[in-house]
Amino acid sequence: MYIAGVLIVAALVVFWIVTRFYLRGVSLTRFDAPIPVSFDAEKPSAAMIGVNKYLKENFTMGERLSVKRERFDQGGLVRDFGCTFRSQVAVFDGVEVPGEWTLVEGYAPNKRLLYLHGGAFTVGSPLSHRPITANLAKKTGCAVFTPDYRLMPENPRMASIVDSRAAYQWLVENGPASSEPAEKIAVAGDSAGGNLTLCLSNWTRDNGVRLPDAVIGISPATDTSATSPSIRTNFDTDVMLKPLIAPLLKLPHWLLLWGSWKVNGIRPASKLISPVRDNLAGLPPTLIHASTAEMLYDDAKRYVNKATVQGSPVKIQSWPHMCHVWHIFDEMLPEANVALDEIAAFMCKHGVSNDVSKSTA
Length: 361
Known about the structure:
Layout: H1 2-23, H2 46-58, H3 65-74, E1 84-92, E2 95-103, E3 108-116, H4 130-140, E4 142-147, H5 157-173, E5 184-190, H6 192-206, E6 214-218, H7 230-233, H8 242-249, H9 253-264, E7 286-291, H10 297-309, E8 314-319, H11 334-349
Parallel strand pairs: 3-4, 3-5, 5-6, 6-7, 7-8
Antiparallel strand pairs: 1-2, 2-4
C-alpha cells in the first residue's frame, strides 16, 4: 500500500513537471508591459458594429468543416478584384506546394511577397484571402504569392511549416514569369498564417536562408501554450474567435496543453509552433498589427516586447474595437484600408514596393 502511494505521488509529480515546464514552458509575464495604442477611438465605428453583426451571424459553433471551408473560399469568388490570379506550383527540395499569384498591371517581378493565409490551420486558401492579397498587390506593385499549404486535420501540423518554408525558398529564386532571384522579398500572414510567418522569420535566421527584407504579422498567434491574459480577458469582445475558443476555455489549462500536444504532435512551448518562445534577436524589420479587443492581443504584445528587449527592429501598430484580422473586411471597414495602407508603407520603406506612400509605419 505504501509503495503504491509513493508511486502515485511520483507519477503526479512527473505529470506536473512535464505539464508545467515541458508543455507550458517558462512564464512570459515579464513581457506584458503595456504598449500605447497607435490608432485610438473612444467607441466602435458604425462600420465595425456592422462587421460584428455579420460575424455573429456567420461564425458559429458546430459548423461542418467542409461547409466552413467553402464559405471562406466564396469570399474570393464573389467580386472582381481588378487583379490577375494565376495558379502556380512551388517546388523546392522535393516539396510541392500549390498556390496562387496575385498580379497587377505593371507589377515588379523581382519584388515579391509571400502571403500565408489564416484559418486556424484548418480552413482558408488563396481564394479566401484575396481581399488582402489583392489590396497588397495593388498598393505595392509587388508580385504576391499565396501558398495553399496543407491543412489539418487531414495533414499533421508540421506539414504547414514544411510547406511555408519550401514556398519561401522557392519564391526567393522564382518569380511569376521566370526563374530569377528576388531583389526584395517580404513575408506576411494573418492569425495562423501570422504564426507561420513569424516562425518562418526565425527559421531563416537560424538556417542560413536569405532573410526577408520585411515581415508582417496580422493578428498573429505567437504562443500555442495559450498563456496570454487576453485569451480570457478579451473573450467577450472577440466576436470572431469566441465561438472557436469557447469550448476550449471550459477545459482546465493542463488538459488544453496535453490536448494540443496530441493534436499537433509538437509540444505547445516548442519554438516550432510558438515563435515568441524562440530567441528573437537578429530578426529582420517586422511589423505587427493587432486589435486591443481581440483574444490574441497579448500574443502580439509579448512578441513585440520580447523582440524589442532582444534588440530586433520589431514594432506594433494597434487599433481598439477591431475584430480579429479586420484587414479582410476591406469593403466594409475604412479601418481595414488604413491598416493595409500602413502595411504597404512598411513594405515600401524596406524596398518591397514599386510605390511610395506616407504613413507612420
